[in-house]
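[Automated response] Your request has been received and processed.

Submitted sequence:
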Amino acid sequence: MDLKNLKTYFLVSVISITLFSFFISASADSTDPPEVRTNDPISVDINSANLSGTVNPKNSTTTMWFEYGKNRNNLSDKTPEVDVGAGNNPISKSKIITGLDAVTTYYYRAAAKNSFGATYGEIKNFDTRFPQIDFTVTSPAPGSKYFAKPILLSGTVASSWCSNVTLNVKIKVYLDNILLQTIIVGDRSGGWSQSFSMWYNGNLSVGQHNLKLELYGNNKLRATSNNIFNIVAPEVDIKANNQDGPITIELPLPTSPHQYYTLSWTARYITSLLTASGDWAGEKNANGAQDIRIARKSNVLNQAVDWVYRLRGVNHFATNSDEVKVKVIQVPQCEISLNPSNIILPQSSTINWSCYYADSVQIKAYKISDNDNQFNDGTYQVIVNNNIDYYSSGNISVRPSETTRYRLESIGLDGNRITSSSLLTIGFIPTIREIIPRW
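Generated structure:
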């Protein structure tokens, strides 16, 4: 081989190796267009939105952009293309678009391209926000309490200025998710306000209720307001001698001046006078007091005596009542006396006794020690043991041999009572005997 042919052979070999290396290198790179995914917007405002998308360049230099518009089939607006590199991993990008119309549906998608083609993500949509909505409910005031019909539902709905769009506006008024009224505001652009007022005369349960307002623009729900108020039952409180009761009072003696206990009461959230029942009757004002004479219910002694005083309050939504009990008990009330309280044997003394409200009476005699003047419980005797009724009295003559105390023990329907007398003091006449003087 001559030198000329050798040079030619060498040149062909170098070109062949270079081309082979190029094709080997090219075969290692992807020939796919980028992968694109359209994400949900990061944020949406009245006139702007922050769009988001994800791109995988597939090892080829790639650019990305967003397309958007009001017509799903005509995404006429486009953001500037941005370089997302030539890697092989997903890359998320976002872009804020401005100059949008308020309260308008927009469609958008992410897109990307490299040298092997363009790819478009899924078409999604968003609604630009409604301008600031101010809900003012004047009645019922939030947290207020109502107990009478009808209830006034009133307020104002207002929007800030929005001159770049005209909306067909309506307001729906709900009470506990029940539609009460639809207010057609009509086409509005710019700032506007709309008042509403209605009387509600229906039944409501006691508890919390919600007056909900919904604002619609172009038949889409744009804003909601919830306003909580309360329906309350009557509150009634009755006391006896300033106590909730039950209270217990002793039946006084029939011979004593009349004695009383006092009922007092308060009520609120009522729409009519209170109604009394039980052991009294009639209509009562919301606040008052009344003295009640202490007495038995009947002339039968052996009968528990419970007086019940009840008050019932009513409003347009509920009723409520309260009661107080007064127990008049019949505890024995007795007296015992000695006449005279001092004797000199062989004189005697008379025990006089009387009892009200006792079922039985015992009179016991206790001998008294000369040293300590205390009862000697082992030396008494039963003088009287009667089964008696409403009132009983008596007397008995006694002639003890030494100083004695007499105690009356009575048992009644509702308790026992001990009544002690004074001492019966015993004296003696000295014995006179003849003394013969000694001379």
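Summary generated for your ticket: The helical segments are 3-28. Residues 274 and 284 are 5 Å apart (CA to CA).
If you did not submit this request, please reply to this message.
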